[in-house]
Structures are given as structure tokens and as C-alpha cells.
Amino acid sequence: MRTTFSALALTLVIASSPGEARVIPDPGQKPAPGNEVRQTPLHLADYSPSVNYQLQCVGCHLTSGEGAPRSDVPMMKGFVGNFLKVEGGREFLIRVPGSSLSALSNSQLAELLNWMLKDDGIAGGSAPQGFKPYTGKEVEAYRGVMIKDLVSYRRNLIEQIRDLNIEIPENVIP
Amino acid sequence: MKFLDRFFERSSRHVANTTGRRQFIAKFGSFMAVGVATPALLPIDRTGKALAAGAPSAGDPGDPTSCDYWRYCSVDGFLCSCCGGSVTTCPPGTESSQVTWVGTCRNPADGIDYIISYNDCCGKHSCAQCACTRNDSEEPMYRPFNNNDINWCLGTDSSVYNCTVAVIRGVATPGA
Fold it and tell me: Is A166 exposed, middle or buried (0-12, 13-18, 19+ CB in 10 A)?
């Protein structure tokens, strides 16, 4: 009986190895064809705000800023401009981790925020009329100032916006 | 070994005692006929084979079932094109994660950098075929939105990872 068992075990081991070998990544792997040259770091690449949005934001906030509330990603579409109407909100858009920790340079981040807050952009008219555009200098000043309690900081901003009689959509995650 | 000897002796004697040659041929014949016909008649979804890995073309060179395909320059996971899906579609029975991570890859055919999103397909256990790890656009874990070591099965019904697709979202042209 033991012999049979050993024979069976040996057969299984020999038969399964080609299948298993495929899942181990190859350590001596060459770059994918056409991608041999190292990529330009984003802060040195001269991309437009819309391309930068795709590369740094779209994965979670999605194409038009609709967000993914099921994964705690708040909706920005048609709402994000309201942050400029309350105290601490203007800095919030710089200091929020998605902005401050992004791979963008200060001026690129300023451009991206201005692009996002345009009336025909993600903000969709929610930003105050004729708001002062962000500058690289302003981003530099606030970017390194960490928000210690992000959840209550944001909740406070939302409460202030609510006090202005602005409706808070559910997907904004109040 | 004695066990095997005994086993085969007994079973062949049993077969010789209880069957005739004609009966065997008749039964074997019907078994073969049914065996060949059944798979062709069963209602199996055969579209997977047609969709899996479209043929390479001049503008999109390479084999999508190979880790050396250009779009996989920042992928980390199992390639859906080996798992019953394709470069851009999830295998049947899995759900594509909308929340995803995005990078760029250069197409060797035109030298242009394309914006690629690496959506995970979720809801079935790991496909475990065509493992591919390339990290050209990847950034460290403190930039989680640019990291491919995390499970991107977010916003889906199930967070069980099956495989990854590579979808072109646009073109990354400097100054445009």
C-alpha cells in the first residue's frame, strides 16, 4: 500500500511542476519592448492638467470626479468648488493627502486645481465666481502642513458649507 | 508491488468472466460516440476563446498573453488574457474594479506614451496564470494611488483578486 501511495505521490509531483512554474515571476526580466528607457518623473514631464489628472487622480476619483463612495472616495463632481467658500477650505484642497502627496510639482498642482475648479470642469460651477487662481507659491506654503485629523477637519468644512444652505449630496460623504 | 499484481489479476479475471468480446465492442463503440458528441452539444460559452488575446497588429505589436507585451510595462498580477478574458475584458464571472491605478507605457510601434489603467478583475479566486510583474510607472507605497502592490479590488462586491487588464485611457503628450 505504501508503495502505491509513493508512486501516486511521485506522479502528481512530476505532473504538476510545469503548471506551478508559470506563476513565479522571472527575476532576470528585461523591460517590455519599447519601454527600455526609464520614464520621465512626473514633476519633470510637461503634461497638461488633464493628463496629470488621469495619471494621479482618475484611478480613484474617476473620469468626471464622480468618486467611489463604496470605497470612501468622495465625489468631487459639481461640488468641490464649494470648499473655496468656507474658512480653511482653500488650503484643504492643497493639504488633502491626494493633492499634497501626489507626484506633481507645486506649480503643476496649482494648475491642476485651477483646471478642476473651472465652471466647465469637475467643479461644474460650484466654485465662487471669479475666485483667485492657485499659484505654485501658495501650494508651496500649504502643501507641507499636514492635516492631523483629516476626518474631523473635513467634516467641519462640510458643516460650514451646509450652514451656507448648500445641499450636500450623499456621495460627497458628509 | 504485490498489491498491483493482485489488483490487475483480479480485475482482468473479473472482466474475462463477466463479458464477451462482442459485448465489449458494442459498449465501447457507443461510449466513444457519446463521448465525442457530448462536448459539442453541451451549452458551453465559447466566446472566451474568440475574445482571448486578439491577433497582434502593426499598430499594436506583441502578444497580449505574454508579459513582454508593451501595455504590461507597469502591471503586477495575473494577465486576464490568460485567464479566459482579454487585455481589456474580465473573465466571465468576475467584476471589473472601477477604482484602479493608472500609469503610462510607450508603444514601440509609434513611440507614443499611452495612459494605461490596470483594472483588477474581482470575485473569483486567483487565476494564477501568466504572472507578470513590471513596475515602470510605479511609485512607493506612501503614494498608494500609484502603487501596484496593493489589492485594487475596491468598490466591487468582492475583494477577491482574480487577474488584471490593461486598458488604454488616452495619450500622454508633453505640452498638450
Answer: middle
pTM of the model: 0.73
**CB-CB neighbors (< 8 A) of B100 in chain A:** 59
Q: What positions of B carry a catalytic annotation?
A: 101, 120
Length of chain A: 174
| Burial zone of A165 (CB within 10 Å; 0-12 exposed, 13-18 middle, 19+ buried) | exposed
Complex ipTM, two decimals? 0.76
Answer positive or negative: Cα dihedral of A144, A146, A151, A152: negative
* Run means of pLDDT, 10 residues per run, chain B, 176 residues: 89 84 77 72 59 62 91 92 94 92 91 92 93 83 78 88 94 80
Measure CB to CB from residue A101 to each of B105, B111, B143 and give the nearest one.
B143
Residues in chain A with CB shorter than 8 Å from the CB of B114 are: none
Separation of alpha carbons A120 and B22, rounded Å:
83
Distance CA A58, CA A77 (A): 12
Per-residue confidence (pLDDT) for residue A19, from 0 to 100: 42
pLDDT digits (tens, 9 = 90+) for A94-129: 999 999 999 999 999 999 999 999 999 999 999 999
Strand spans (E) along B36-94: 76-78
Record: contact B146-A4, CB cut-off 8 A: no
User: What's the grid cell of residue B30?
Assistant: 457507443
Q: Do B131 and A25 touch (CB under 8 A)?
A: yes
Q: Which helix (H) or strand (E) holds B101?
A: strand B101-106
